[in-house]
Amino acid sequence: MEKILQVKDLELSFHTFGGEVKAIRGVNFDLYKGETLAIVGESGSGKSVTTKSIMRLLPEATSEFKNGEILFGGRDLTKLSDKEMQKIRGKDISMIFQDPMTSLNPTMPIGRQITEPILKHQKISKDEAKKVAIDLLRLVGMPKPELRMKQYPHQFSGGQRQRIVIAIALACNPQILIADEPTTALDVTIQAQILELMKDLQKKIDTSIIFITHDLGVVANVADRVAVMYGGKIVEIGTVDEIFYNPQHPYTWGLLSSMPSMDAEDAKLYAIPGTPPDLLDPPKGDAFALRSEYAMKIDMEQPPPFFKVSDTHMAATWLLHPEAPAVEPPEMVIERMKKFPGSRYYEGSAN
Amino acid sequence: MARYIGKRLIYMFITLALIATFTFFLMKILPGSPIASADKLSPEQRAVVEARYGLDQPLPVQYFDYMFGLLQGDLGISINQFKGANVTDVILSRMGPSAQIGFQGMLLGTVLGILFGMVAALRQNTWVDYGSTIVAIIGISIPSFVFASMLQYWLGLKWDLFPVALWKDGFMSSVLPSIALAMFPLATAARFIRTEMIEVLGSDYITLAKAKGASGSEIAFKHAFRNALIPLITVLGPMAVSILTGSLVVEQIFAIPGIGEQFVKSIMVNDFSIIMGTTIFFSVFLIVVILVVDILYGVIDPRIRLSGGKS
Q1: B49 Rama class: left (phi>0) / alpha (psi -120 to 50) / beta
Q2: Are B309 and A154 a contacting pair at CB < 8 A?
């Protein structure tokens, strides 16, 4: 498959009054054409910062690329000038934000907000751009698009606004669409509609999607591959089945265990103990070690490298080292692994 | 919209009636008489003069006479300041210079203030920003009469660029008073626009605009500016007040034959009908400004559009 975007050894810091916050500490991943890659992790894990750095939307005064590159179309995005980035933003790479209630300009009719990137990136007249915008609105399922072009954001509901934001993002048929928790601010029924819409549109225009979320239910629904981020690093990456049914990193185990389940007998929700690491002074070894009951001595001293689980599956944990003692994952994870061919707990087809 | 304005007009009418009533009785309570050298007149002479202006009538009769006249647009006649001249004519003849320096001051103040505020916000925490903040602090904390004197001294006397005072050289005469009046609106606008621009520039829709590929200037002017204007409209009212009160002092200092100067004199000589007339005139002006401000809100911010929005 064709790699459309490559993130290599990316390191990025914020300069704050308290000191240098190492928000991204060596992130590697590839994005393939037409796939949906979900990035999951708790707040502060660096998932939003990673994608915002691809778009170069972080404040230039306080953020700094320390290392690595972001390769797109043969160019390193970290080195482009602002002018060159403007030509890429909204055209080749576009973005959907978390809160549709605040991501549209309240004093501009939505028609103008949709035609803006079209007029910016394509050489067409205003009237043609309007037609394109109306078609886009129809595409995202907005009834009577001609009439609604002149209306302002406050005249739409939250779900409709997110549809408009999606229309804006798709205006120039981008090669990459970054969706930063696009359904988090919406209620559950609308969430499902928006996810369906995104899946439909992805097929229609054949775009690659980077989908950021902390909702594993959403991940299972939309993603082809999943990257789990923790403390500014990717700790595990693999296909959606590999992450859900054959997870290797203790943090992924914790994440999966803390997912509410319909058929769990006792209703008590599992929570990972402790708090995320302080990235002003990141831990020397495995960032998750302090919260992990599986931590070994080496986890405190040396960051684990990536161990290959399969061609598509990698995890950064010392537990995969040949000399590491075999440990039992949590009950709930073992239950999942039993359904996955290739895992050590596989019991034949469960379904 | 028409219905809304109609409603507002009724309220305005009630407000005006209250202001007129209040001012009327307030003046009657105050000591002093509009009749010059009243002490020297014999009681008979005094009675003749008072009868001429209706001052011999009982207070309620005077009040209703006045209010009835007011309803017909009659502000009465000047008792001593302009010796029998119609108050409406006096005000109208004096309005020109006041309106000119007021308008010029307001325009200069808001335009420069917006400019300062925008530049400060876009160049946050640089010397440009600090400079504009200092200008704003000076503009707010130093009263207009101090500016007026300073302008007269430096620009008028020392450098001889503009006439020091009087209303003889047309536009040139209006420059210094306009600048003096502009300082407060300038400082207020600069402060408001800076704060609001910084907040707006940090909002999600600005990030989205950036994500669309918009350039820095497109973001500042197409997306941020209009949203940053909204709170400025709120202070347009107080700014208009500052122009009015400022004009009382500034017109005195520059010896401009405007309403403010005439108002101050009328108070000193107790000319009831002129004081009443000018108060009512100022009130009308302010009430209209407030109405215009409320309508402007809707023009700039579609969320506050008055006719219910679903056009």
Answers
A1: alpha
A2: yes
Q: Specify the range with the lowest mean pLDDT, choosing from B7-11, B69-73, B80-84, B288-292.
A: B80-84
Q: What is the overall mean pLDDT for chain B?
A: 81
CATH number for the domain spanning B207: value is 1.10.3720.10
Q: Residue B226: closest CA among chain A residues belongs to which residue? A: A107
* Residue the block writes with tokens 């009681």: B43
- The verdict on A184 touching B (C-beta cutoff 8 Å) is no
pLDDT, chain A, mean: 88
Contacts of A103 in chain B (CB under 8 A): 204-205, 207-208
Residue type, B44: E
- Tell me the nearest-neighbour CA distance from A74 into chain B, angstroms: 20
| Interchain CB distance below 8 Å, A102 and B210 | no
Q: DSSP letters along B282-300, please?
A: HHHHHHHHHHHHHHHHHHH
Cα torsion through A162, A167, A170, A172, rounded to 10: -140
The DSSP annotation for A47-84 comes to HHHHHHHHHT-S-TTTEEEEEEEEEETTEEGGG--HHH
Determine whether the interchain pair B208/A116 forms a contact, defined as Cβ–Cβ distance below 8 Å.
Answer: no
Write out pLDDT tens, residues A287-343: 888 888 888 888 888 889 999 989 999 999 888 888 888 888 888 888 888 888 877
CATH number at residue A257: 3.40.50.300
Smallest CA-to-CA distance from A3 within A37, A46, A41 is with A37
Min Cα–Cα distance to chain B from A218, Å? 23
Is position A158 within any domain?
A: no
Enclosing domain of residue B204: 94-258
Say whether residue A55 is in contact with chain B using an 8 A CB cutoff: yes
How many domains, chain A? 1
| Domain around A246 | 1-92+179-184+212-351
Task: Indicate the residue type of A270.
Answer: Y
Tally the domains of chain B: 1
* More confident position, B133 or A228: A228
Does A156 contact B at CB distance below 8 Å? no
- Read off the DSSP letter of residue A323: T
